[in-house]
Protein: Pilus assembly protein TadB
Amino acid sequence: MSISIRSRLINFGRSKHELLPEESSKLARSAAVRNNLTDYNVYQMSPKEQAFTIGITGLVFAGVSFIFYKQLLLSLAGLLLGLLMPRFRRIRLMHLRKERLNQQFKQALYCMSTSLSAGRSVESSFRETWKDLKLLYPDPNCLIVLEFEIIVRRLDNGEPIEKAVADFACRAGTEDISNFADVFITCKRTGGNLVEVIRRTAAIIGDKLEIVQDISVLVAQKRFESRILLAAPIAMVAVLSFSSPDYMAPLYSGIGPLIMTGGLLVLAACFWLITKIMDIKV
Structure:
């Protein structure tokens, strides 16, 4: 899933006759991969992730189908439902990656604000911020480190800083980064106080992330309780069907399967409702 940033850097703005031979070869290599920058609005699951998601969800659906219907064909149908789950898992992983990028971006703003306060230019501040981020996040595949390296390489190739930041904001697809890019580009063109803008932006994003974390802590227990309550009816039916098969026999014949189907639909509706309630936007 993660590709080394060295194979994804883009060269813009120079013709080959302006470059040294080694620089020209780098330009040729980077031009071949110029469209391979990460788009955070699209998440590509690895084969391992897809197989794990299909296997786990398929087994869960098959087990629930067997508990409620006691028919192997329906259990196999439930197993096949696991093939539909990667698309939903992909959306969830995409949101988690954006949240992780947003948290790392807050640290980048703090570093940039410090660098600008020391009197460095905007371009030099981005370079210093990249160096600081590599110390904060030793992982070479860290999202924000990769993105700032892309920005620095574009600056080295003569591309305007506004274009590099705007492209990053477009690919990130998060409200905070997009707002920062808009304000940054406006201040850069009109001569605004970049130090104060970045400091205020970092403070606002930091406060927002703290609120999100507080909400996550508050709803974590309720989320766990809701999952227990959703699993309780299924566990109860399973225990009764295996311990007292005669008592549960009417539910597996006649109109019994319709009653079981109604119960599953109610559980599915409860799961959807709980998910909507727990999804608190800030």
Notes: Residues 194-243 form the longest helix (50 residues). The chain has eleven helices and no strands.
